[in-house]
Write a structure and sequence with these properties.
seven-stranded mixed β-sheet, about 750 residues
């Protein structure tokens, strides 16, 4: 629908639920320093992503990155992804960023299934920036859009299968037998006829010299023993013991420490020179900010408090406030310049003729990412090299950012991925990386740059505020005959220069188009809001906005038709649809229509995003006359083939927690062109006492993989709002709800 508005980062979200499969695979190989082979997979998906990205002025991305490094001692690199040690350990390189979603466990499971290795021998390593580790759904080494598992799935299955066949081939050559007469299981190759066997560790060096299979035999899904099973996450022990290295943990010899002070207003810049404050080593102007450098982070932050700097504050700052942004949105809602995102039939005519009409408006605020680990990056720049250690979601873009600042060739730039203490879209951005590289280049020594929490809140790339209007009509039998949905919000893609004039920002309408319901004549359009508040990718992006308005409006239509909310939804869905199956599963689990404790009520929401369908039912009661208590949440997902069921359930639980924060309390008020929130004292997060019991379940499926990290967020707000209406008769159309 919106291919002309897709960036390389977002193309993944537009891939159909069924997903293009890798029908042809070409293995590309060359010699590695340790005698292994570099094996990559050329995917037709990459071509689709590149073609989509080529239609817009996409962010620069380095085409080449540092070549693969040598394998560690006593380990052999078989392909780009797999290290086999003489001690029989198997290390899988992880191209995605680990920010709590569990890719360091799920991705190795995919390899282990095809490699036929003992799972207890499998570990992982976070990969440096390298084109070999590009996510096929993303066109680069980027993490977002719930694509880490579904993006790497085919590639890693083939990598594991190819390595297995190379190990079998090495054993067959050693014994002078046919490879077809040998089998591989639990990290051992066996020739049953002669009774001979050899471990992977003993075969690895020979395997690395074997021809690379062009079409390795994949395991039939019915024979999976590792994929689809719950395995302990290997990153958890590292985090419990403190062995995991986050960006904020990096230490280098001769390193100095920096923090930043940004212009108080969005869009402001440093005016003139800056003086080094007492206690600091240096103060370096960075355009919209000043970096203060000292011998340690605490001293740098203390010195930053004494910084004297003049700012060029935009003339529009004083007039940029939440109230004025909202007033502008109301005017734009009546604009005749809306950009059509989806249309079917004549919704205006159908609405005019409908006996029952609803005109509903929903408002949502700006939201912060509020990652537990503040933004930070360590950089070491010399005249001939640049090395970066970062908790980043955008390794490919980090290379391009550093190349632009240093003038170095991408091959001279190394990006080390650390663990992320939360990412949620914020650490895809390049501002904090650019600052660290700039400061290191200026000083000629390693620098670790860390933002204060106040700077993190005040200079986030917020989820856009939105005003959404839904007009819908019912005929005399309570059937929906017309649906008009207008969204007013700032453009994430537009602010980055990724959106051609007159095009629809896919991020603004995701979750409002291609709905599964039979809604009669439809018109969905979007009006870009010109507010200068910086906006960015927040977990589930536009889906978190539009699911609230769509699922709330569907509930309001059900009430107007005098029908049960679940029965009404079922009537709008094809009997054999996956959406209806998910709805039936989650409402059955919640015993919808059954008895409830006195004073309790249920609310429902159903949403599809990122290739997965999620149904949710919440149970709440009144705590006081104006507040609620959550008791239970039932959530069911159809995400296709599952890698690790426990991890899927954990993601649904985490998504609910974040969705609860956003629905109940999340808000960034704007005054004088700046956020008024600077700390967690004004940005409440869900706490243990706020949490209900979460009952998460997974629909059995062998379908194409869907996303898991983001789809659980969108249904939270509408499910709670719908339950509150059932309980009180009051509709909540503005977020945050503040009923807890």
């Amino acid at each position: 629908m919106h291919d002309d508005a897709i960036s390389a980062f977002e193309a993944l979200a537009r891939i159909p639920r069924s997903g293009p499969q890798l029908s042809r695979r070409k293995f590309i190989f060359g010699s590695a320093a340790a005698g292994g082979l570099l094996v990559g997979v050329a995917s037709p998906v990459l071509g689709k992503v590149a073609a989509a990205a080529a239609k817009v002025p996409a962010a620069p991305m380095a085409a080449a990155m540092l070549p693969m490094a040598s394998a560690p001692a006593n380990q052999t690199l078989i392909g780009s992804w797999i290290l086999v040690g003489s001690d029989e350990t198997v290390t899988v390189y992880i191209g995605a960023s680990e920010m709590g979603q569990g890719v360091t466990g799920g991705l190795p499971q995919i390899v282990a299934e095809e490699l036929k290795v003992d799972w207890s021998k499998v570990t992982f390593a976070l990969a440096d920036a390298n084109s070999a580790f590009a996510n096929p759904f993303m066109g680069g080494q980027l993490t977002g859009g719930s694509t880490s598992t579904r993006g790497y799935y085919d590639l890693l299955r083939n990598a594991g299968a190819a390595a297995r066949e190379m190990l079998v081939g090495a054993a067959a050559a050693r014994w002078g037998v046919a490879a077809s007469a040998c089998t591989a299981a639990n990290g051992v190759v066996t020739h049953a006829a002669s009774g001979r066997s050899a471990t992977y560790g003993s075969l690895a060096a020979d395997a690395a010299t074997q021809p690379v299979p062009t079409s390795p035999q994949l395991t039939d899904p019915s024979q999976f023993t590792i994929i689809g099973t719950s395995r302990p996450r290997p990153d958890i022990p590292l985090k419990v013991t403190g062995a995991a290295k986050f960006g904020i943990d990096v230490r280098l010899p001769n390193m100095v420490y920096a923090t930043v002070v940004h212009c108080p207003a969005f869009g402001g810049t440093v005016a003139g020179s800056v003086s080094t404050p007492p206690g600091a080593i240096a103060a370096i102007a960075l355009g919209d900010a000043v970096a203060v450098v000292a011998d340690n982070t605490w001293t740098a932050m203390q010195a930053a408090e004494q910084l004297q700097v003049r700012w060029n504050v935009p003339s529009t700052a004083k007039s940029t406030s939440s109230s004025k942004i909202a007033a502008t949105a109301k005017k734009l809602m009546k604009s005749k310049s809306a950009i059509v995102a989806e249309t079917s039939g004549n919704a205006t005519t159908a609405l005019a003729g409908a006996p029952t009409k609803l005109n509903l408006t929903y408002a949502l605020p700006y939201l912060a990412h509020a990652c537990m680990e503040p933004l930070n990056c360590t950089a070491s720049v010399t005249p001939t090299s640049c090395e970066i250690w970062a908790p980043t979601q955008g390794q490919s873009m980090n290379v391009s950012t550093a190349a632009a600042i240093t003038g170095l060739d991408p091959s001279q730039i190394v990006v080390h991925t650390t663990f992320l203490g939360g990412g949620l879209g914020r650490k895809f951005e390049q501002d904090f990386v650019a600052q660290a590289v700039t400061v290191s280049k200026a000083l000629g020594r390693p620098v670790k740059l860390t933002w204060k929490r106040e700077e993190d809140f005040a200079h986030d790339q917020y989820r856009p505020a939105a005003l959404v209007n839904v007009q819908a009509g019912l005929d005399g039998s309570g059937n929906v005959v017309a649906w008009k949905n207008r969204i007013v919000s700032s453009s994430i893609l537009g602010q980055r220069g990724w959106l051609p004039p007159g095009a629809v920002d896919s991020q603004a309408v995701d979750g409002a188009v291609e709905l599964p319901y039979a809604l009669g004549a439809r018109l969905v359009d979007w009006v870009p809001h010109p507010a200068t508040v910086p906006v960015g990718f927040w977990r589930s992006v536009g889906h978190s906005i539009n699911a609230f308005s769509v699922e709330s409006a569907i509930d309001e239509l059900a009430a107007a038709a005098g029908k049960d909310p679940v029965a009404f939804r079922r009537s709008l869905l094809p009997p054999t649809s996956k959406h209806r199956a998910v709805l039936d599963a989650v409402t059955s689990a919640a015993n919808w229509g059954g008895s409830l404790p006195a004073g309790h009520a249920l609310g429902v929401a159903l949403h599809e995003g990122f290739g997965s369908i999620v149904g949710m039912v919440v149970e709440l009661s009144k705590a006081t006359a104006t507040t609620a208590k959550l008791w239970n949440v039932w959530v069911t997902i159809d995400c296709g083939q599952v890698i690790n069921p426990d991890q899927v359930r954990a993601q649904l639980e985490g998504a609910f927690t974040q969705g609860l924060t956003a629905a109940m309390w999340g808000e960034i008020p704007i005054q004088n062109g700046a956020s008024t929130v600077r700390q967690f004292d004004k940005y409440k997060m869900a706490r243990m006492r706020d949490m209900p019991v979460i009952h998460a379940s997974i629909m059995p499926s062998t379908g194409a993989l869907g996303g898991v990290g983001e789809p659980g967020v969108p249904p939270v707000a509408p499910a709670i709002a719908n339950a509150w209406f059932t309980l009180t008769g009051t509709r909540l159309r503005n977020l945050p709800m503040r009923i807890m």
